[in-house]
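F.,

This is the one I mentioned.
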C-alpha cells in the first residue's frame, strides 16, 4: 500500500510547489542587499575618466543607481522613462555602465539624452558583481544613509515606479504617499 501511496504524495507535493512558483512575479529576485549599506565601489566616470564615482555619491538624499549598457535592449526601452524622471528632479539618478564600450556609452547618452548625475564605467563587471547584478537593466533605490532600499530587475516603467519606488522614496524621506 505504501508503495503506491508514496509516488502520489510526491506528485501532489510537486504540483503544489509548481503552482506556488507560477504565482510569483518572474521579475522578482530577492536581494541580500536590501536594508544593508550599498557596496563600496570606485569607478572612473564616463564623462571624465580622471574623476571617480564612488558609493559616497549616493548618500545625502534618496538616489537611484541604474545598471545599463548600450547592448541592452531593455535599457533602450526604459531610457525615455529615466529621462522623464530626471526632468521631474524628484530624485538623483546615477548610472553604472556595465561591461560596455565607453565610447559607445557616451555616444548613446549624447544621442538619447543623459538622465544621470554621473555614470561610473564598470568594464570588467566587478562592481556589478558586488551589487548582485544578474543582468541589465537593474535599478537600485538607495536611502540618504547609503542603504539599499529596493532592487528592480527589468526595464523601469511608470507602473513599477508608482507602485514600488515612489512609496519607498516618500517613506524614506519621512513623508506619506497621497
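My design for it:
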Amino acid at each position: 500500500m505504501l508503495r503506491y501511496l508514496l509516488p502520489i504524495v510526491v506528485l501532489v507535493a510537486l504540483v503544489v510547489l509548481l503552482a506556488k512558483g507560477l504565482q510569483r512575479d518572474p521579475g522578482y529576485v530577492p536581494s541580500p542587499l536590501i536594508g544593508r549599506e550599498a557596496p563600496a565601489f570606485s569607478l572612473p566616470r564616463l564623462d571624465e575618466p580622471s574623476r571617480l564615482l564612488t558609493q559616497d555619491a549616493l548618500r545625502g538624499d534618496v538616489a537611484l543607481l541604474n545598471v545599463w549598457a548600450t547592448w541592452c535592449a531593455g535599457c533602450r526601452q526604459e531610457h525615455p522613462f529615466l529621462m522623464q524622471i530626471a526632468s521631474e528632479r524628484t530624485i538623483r539618478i546615477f548610472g553604472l555602465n556595465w561591461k560596455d564600450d565607453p565610447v559607445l556609452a557616451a555616444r548613446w547618452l549624447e544621442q538619447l539624452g543623459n538622465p544621470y548625475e554621473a555614470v561610473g564605467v564598470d568594464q570588467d563587471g566587478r562592481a556589478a558583481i558586488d551589487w548582485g547584478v544578474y543582468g541589465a537593466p537593474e535599478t537600485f533605490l538607495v536611502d540618504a544613509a547609503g542603504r539599499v532600499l529596493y532592487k528592480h530587475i527589468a526595464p523601469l516603467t511608470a507602473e513599477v515606479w508608482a507602485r514600488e519606488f515612489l512609496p519607498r522614496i516618500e517613506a524614506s524621506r519621512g513623508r506619506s504617499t497621497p
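The chain has one domain: 33-172.

Talk soon.
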